[in-house]
Automatic annotation (TrEMBL):
InterPro entries: Retrotrans_gag_dom. Pfam families: Retrotrans_gag. Residues 20-56, 234-255, 285-312 are annotated as: Disordered. Residues 26-46, 234-253 have a biased composition (Basic and acidic residues). It comes from the Eukaryota. The lineage of its organism: Eukaryota, Viridiplantae, Streptophyta, Embryophyta, Tracheophyta. Residues 110-200 form the Retrotransposon gag domain. This is Uncharacterized protein LOC107485258.
Length: 326
């Protein structure tokens, strides 16, 4: 026969709860069947009860029988002494109350969600010191208050920066994960931090001009940029891989720039005159090799580009010049 796999932590928790419930019910049944005791016998029983202390819980909690249909939630990770204890108490109580837990149920089940140093702390509590959940939640929060120092505050957001080659989507995901873990984070502080963390570039300039006043407005602007980045990334992946022979063959071909726009603005003045005026006013710089392009064999000497300062094509037909004028 194949060996059964060991039970998961959640299954163990359920098994412990069910066993505890069975034991409590059996104890109640046996108490009802016990004959009357004389004074000496009763004193011996009381002494035995004191020697075998039930732990931090008082008898009324220890002997409490969990509802028959109650099951321990398995979505909560046990607290091991790290993290904000107040947050953990809030999460524990909210999950348990949704499942119909009473105050005594909270008391009985809370130790099942402690581990490591936290469980050791619980076991060290004075015997019979817990009669309600508040008796355990408040000391718990006070004892592990120092663990909250491991959490980030709003100042930490200013250290989150977009990497040189990091996508905007990844940057915003990392930023958001940290932001949601900061208690009472002011929206304006969050907005300022995420804008400050953008790397220099076109999107940062867009945000500087648009001046979004809320995180919702910022996300709306970011969504368009993220879509553009993902389209570019998809094109890179789909780009065919050429063999070395193909690369050397392609490198010998004349470079033909691809138009950036489908349609271009029609000006009353010739593009040639506009380009000359722009170059003279030094609003843009000509190409580095302007005026030094070697004329290859078959170059049409009747055509001249004022932007490239070379023969072979007219300024009106120059794709790069037309892109600059848009």
């Amino acid at each position: 026969m194949a060996e059964q796999p060991p039970p998961s932590p959640s299954e163990l928790l359920r098994m412990v709860t069910e066993l505890r419930q069975v034991v409590a019910e059996e104890n109640q049944r046996m108490e009802g069947e016990q004959p009357e005791h004389n004074e000496d016998t009763q004193k011996n029983i009381e002494n035995d009860d004191q020697e075998s202390s039930p732990g931090p819980f008082m008898a009324e909690v220890m002997n409490f029988v969990l509802p028959r249909r109650f099951t321990l939630p398995t979505t909560l990770t046990p607290y091991d002494g790290l993290g904000d204890p107040k947050k953990y108490i809030k999460k524990f109580t909210s999950i348990m109350i949704v499942n119909g837990a009473s105050d005594k149920v909270l008391c009985c089940c809370f130790p099942s969600y402690l581990d490591g140093p936290a469980l050791d702390w619980f076991c060290s509590l004075p015997a019979g010191s817990i009669s309600r959940f508040r008796d355990i939640s408040k000391p718990f929060e006070e004892h592990f208050a120092g663990s909250a120092i491991y959490l980030h505050d709003s100042d930490y957001l200013n250290t989150v920066k977009q990497g040189q080659h990091e996508s905007l989507k990844n940057y915003m995901t990392c930023f958001t994960k940290i932001a949601i873990s900061i208690p009472d984070l002011h929206p304006e502080v969050e907005l300022h931090a995420i804008k400050s963390g953008l790397r220099p570039g076109k999107f940062q300039e867009t945000i500087a001009v648009a001046k979004p006043k809320t995180m919702a407005e910022f996300r709306e602007k970011a969504k368009g940029q993220i879509d553009i980045e993902e389209i570019r990334q998809a094109r890179k992946i789909e780009k065919p891989h050429y063999k070395d022979d193909d690369k050397s063959r392609d490198s010998k071909k004349n470079f033909k720039p691809i138009p950036r726009y489908e349609t271009y603005t029609k000006f009353n003045t010739k593009s040639d005159d506009i380009i000359k005026e722009i170059l003279n006013s030094k609003l843009i710089k000509p190409p580095r090799k302007a005026g030094n392009y070697p004329d290859s064999k078959g170059t049409d000497q009747s055509k001249n580009c004022s932007f490239h300062q070379k023969h072979g094509h007219n300024t009106d037909d120059c794709v790069i010049a037309k892109d600059l004028l848009e």
